[in-house]
Amino acid sequence: MSMSRRRFIAGTAALAAAWGLSREALGAALAAPMRASDAPSTLMQTIKLSSQAVRGTYRTLLAGAGEAFIPRYDLLGRTADSARASARRSLYYMAHLSDIHVIDAQTPARMDATQSIAPELFTDACRPQDTLTVHVLASMVDSVVAAQTSSVTGAPLATALSTGDSADNLSHTETRWYIDILDGGEVTPNTGAVGVYEGPQIWAESTYAYHPEDPSNDVYGPRGFPTVPGMLTAAVSNPVRSQGLPIPWYAVYGNHDSTYMGTFRPDPTLFAYAVGDRKAAVGEALAPNWLQGYVSDLSAAQMGLNALRQQFGFLPGMKAVTPDPARKLLERTEFMQAHLDSPPVPGPVGHGWTQANVDSGQTWWSADLTPYLRVYGLDTCNMAAGADGAVPEDQFLWLQGELARCQDEGRLAMVCSHHNSLTLENDAKPVTGGQPLIHAEEFIAMLLQYPVCIAWLNGHTHINTITPHARDNGNGGFWEITTASCVDFPQQQQLVELVDNRDGTMSIFVTALDHAAPATWNQGDLSQIGLASLSRELAANAWLNKPALRAGTPLDRNVELLMPAPIELSAITDASVEAEQMKARAQLLAHGGAA
Amino acid sequence: MIRRTALAIAVIATVAALAGCSQVAALTPVGGDSITSVRNAVYDVLVDQEVAILVAPQCEIVDSGFSCTGTTVDGAEIRAEAGGTTPYPLTISVGGEQIFSGDAQQVLDEAMLEAS
Asked: Are A170 and A266 contacting, i.e. CB atoms less than 8 angstroms apart?
């Protein structure tokens, strides 16, 4: 330990007081050397589909071999010295969450029936595992807790960054559920009638949906999807308990947190529809009415027409459901406010946003994770139309100024956004007005101007993807790190660790993280963990969502991403790193961990 | 199905008539699936055949579909060419020697399965 004994004792006393821990116990724990964790991970076990289908094309899941780290030299331009493994020190260890997609599957605002009109366009309108997203998130929380000590260096997990699409459909309920599961607590993922599922998965005419009680007459039956009696009732009746993340977590907007179905600007009709008592069972009567509302400007006359159009709930193909005011759709700033309505632990209150954000409507933020690492949370969502995104000019200029400041200060920087470099091309603007939109090429070129910007974390495509962005002069660049989702197969997130190799290079270790539910679902297991397991199996067979694409490749999962050190890393003293790790370890101990 | 497709087209046409063109252009599925399918299949093959990669192939859209180039640690060129539609017929060569010919989609499907 580089820290002086005096500073260690003072630091321990302060942390013990801050977290309500015994000074002696904390001191003993912090004095123990950090050791690399051998907790279960994808380094030891992966999840694969069975080689033989059990019915039709349906396959179950089973445990496969682990995947060791693969070094990637794309930005280094040469192979690396193997001696780095014994010399390295951890600078920061974090979790990367994205595309959690907590779904209230019963809300009338969920337009499941659009899938019957254009299945390839609305692939995520109605998944077989829609009712099980809260179960999966709680299981992912368990995995993050289990990964609280780095398998590379033994460093403590310090924070989690969530890059958007936390809720699925602008919903107050979905937003509250996701926040409560990450903060820790209990959620019964149900709205409307108590303990009763009302929706397309039980309606005979909704043949586009998976009917677990009897799939023989829907599109899933011929493919061999299983009969699971009681699945829907168990999903909406039993509380899901979450131990909560033991670390502060931050969030950014995703397109599903910003627009209707992640694509459309919501109109007043939809706000009323969400809390109403009619839900579409088939698509034909729904889409024309709904899309008409989407494209219309909100003149007084149109407002009146919209009020009349609310009656489209009485058109053929609509079913009666139990209304629930908790299903209300959120206005733009209400999503940020929901994050402020959360407890101080694990915090931070607002999870990146502050009251100033709510007051001003500014939807992006920055945070100092340590004195030597700053993170920027962007809002790349397009409020005019479309699932894909862009960077509005005001944010672009703000970030450019911030990165210049980090460069001057010798501070490492990371950028978080929902959209990635493949999907930052949306140029939709309001019919009148709108500021210039910056797309991927220009955005990447700007980031490359600032060597302290080492990583861009994002999601959106639900595909594990690692992309190097190199400078033209061959001198480094930054790594783009895209994670899969919690909703589509493989239902993985990531662990990310920044490491100083003490040889003029640094590494970013990325580890794919499965949620904690067993690989193989035991038939009939409708427990909380069993339903999470079943969700993964259903997702692996949900062909519309292209499960074979979403896991990425071995070069996208467990990888060591090398790059030239962007600054003189020795300027970050061992003592300052240890002080930050002490804080993180105390935080984990206070949560009941063994850091 | 034809009736439903026609309805979907009609709906989109209605949108086109009433909204700004930039909004209509944005009404597409999440981007990148096709090029990522090819890219992922190339990476799966290279890892499976234990090619030592210095710069992993980057893929781009070309007239015939997709083209990807990278470099091995020995300085040999990695080149892949693929058709533009599923199942994305794919060839991969390293240092001028072809190491794979087949469908990218099949590579992806098989990568999901337990080891045989």
From this structure: yes
| Mutation target vs B (from A256, A259, A295; most B CBs, 10 A cutoff) | A295
Lookup: tokens for A201: 């998965």
Residue-wise pLDDT for B4-57, tens only, equals 445 554 555 455 444 456 776 777 777 778 999 999 999 999 999 999 999 999
Q: Going along A322-439, which residue ranges are E strands?
A: 365-370, 373-377, 391-392, 412-416, 437-438
Residue type for A317, please? Answer: G
- Give the list of residues 6+ apart from residue A16 with CB closer than 8 angstroms, or none: A22, A23, A26, A27, A586
Q: Which among B14, B21, B27, B66 is the top mutation candidate for probing chain A, defined by the most A β-carbons within 10 Å of its own β-carbon?
A: B27
Q: Please report residues of A whose CB lies closer than 8 A to that of B25.
A: 386, 427-428
- Cβ–Cβ under 8 Å, residues A540 and A59: yes
- The answer to whether A98 and A418 have CB atoms below 8 angstroms apart is yes
Domain limits, chain A: 45-564
Interface A–B counts its CB contacts (< 8 A) at 158
- Residue A148's SS3 state is coil
In CATH, the architecture of A45-564 is 4-Layer Sandwich (3.60)
Taking contacts as CB-CB distances below 8 angstroms, the residues of chain A near B28 are 386-388
- The pTM of the full predicted model, rounded to 2 decimals, is 0.94
Proportion of chain A in helix, strand, coil states, percent, rounded to 5: 35, 20, 50
Kindly list the averaged pLDDT for each block of 10 residues, start to end, along chain A of length 595: 85 92 91 87 96 97 97 97 95 98 96 85 90 98 97 97 97 98 98 97 96 98 98 98 98 95 84 90 68 49 50 67 97 96 95 98 97 98 92 97 98 98 90 86 98 98 98 93 98 98 98 98 98 98 95 98 97 96 96 72
Closest residue of chain A to B2, computed from CA coordinates: A117
